[in-house]
Amino acid sequence: MAAKQADAGPNPARETDSPEANSPAELSAGLEAAGYLPSDTVSLVSYLAVRMGKPVLVEGPAGVGKTELAKALARFTGRELIRLQCYEGLDEAKSLYEWNYKKQLLRIQTGAADETVTDRAVPDGDVRDSWGAVSDNIFSEEFLLERPLLRAIASPRPVVLLIDEIDKTDHEFEALLLEILSDFQVSIPELGVIEAKTHPIVLLTSNDSRELTEALKRRCLYLWLDYPDPERELEIVRLHVPELDAGVARRLVEVVRMVRDLDVKKPPSIAESIDWARTLLLLGAKQIDRETFTQTLSIIIKHRSDMDLVAERVGLKLDAQAASGIG
């Protein structure tokens, strides 16, 4: 990690790394090979992010595949995934860098002991480090603790940086990100400016729980992810659980959509649909009737207050469909 002092003029533009895909279609195929089925829009925005070197802000409800997109990009490109999980109160020390105070204190104590020995043995004090040398030394890279943001910027190899659930932080943290997202550099007062040696692929995810600042949005490409349509979700389930009977898989997708149409606290995510498919496969289920649905309800419903509502409403629909010969 090398630092340089900030210049008075603008930073020169850096070239991005050679793209791993030469078209959105090629990137789409790569993501699919990595276990992620992207829409045309997802493929296009991801491709532009790689080619243009711009961060992507991915918004949408929880459980639609925002985080998994970053993981799939890392798998496809062969890059390390560096993840910063956001939460309320996240600050610079936990996200960017902090100084190793214990190591600094030990260095100061060692320097003070050395000076004592020097003062006794060599009156002119030329042999050992002076306090000035010690104070300069403790604010060097040796004493710097890299957090995820700085680690992504300083990495000698290209990485994928995932800033997950940015909407859980405050506006002050968003302001902290602006320099990183604009210039891919970090300013450390004691060291100067640390510039990225390679260009990371940056994804920020948000569950849309609050409005993000315009300054942050201006620096990003934008992507909205929603729950997939039935055919796309069926493809996703079949991709991850190919052994499941095709009829059961289709029925699973239909039932999951029934649940999402209800007023529940947390609709089933795509990951939970896949977990339910694996559960049905392990149980050897040949159909999804009311009994099977009730027994496995906890796989897709995670709130106690939702369970009674879903069991009653969806259960009645399953009974009615069974009576009419559907499913």
Which features does this protein show?
327 residues; alpha/beta; Rossmann fold; 3 domains; three-stranded antiparallel β-sheet; 10 strands; elongated
Description of the structure:
The protein contains 14 helices and ten strands. The protein is an alpha/beta fold and about 325 residues long. The chain has three domains: about 5-95 and about 145-225, P-loop containing nucleotide triphosphate hydrolases (Rossmann fold), CATH 3.40.50.300; about 95-140; about 230-325. The strands form three sheets. Strands 3-6-9-2-10 form a five-stranded parallel beta sheet, sandwiched between helices. A hairpin with a 3-residue loop joins strand 7 and strand 8. It is elongated. The chain starts with a strand and ends with a helix.
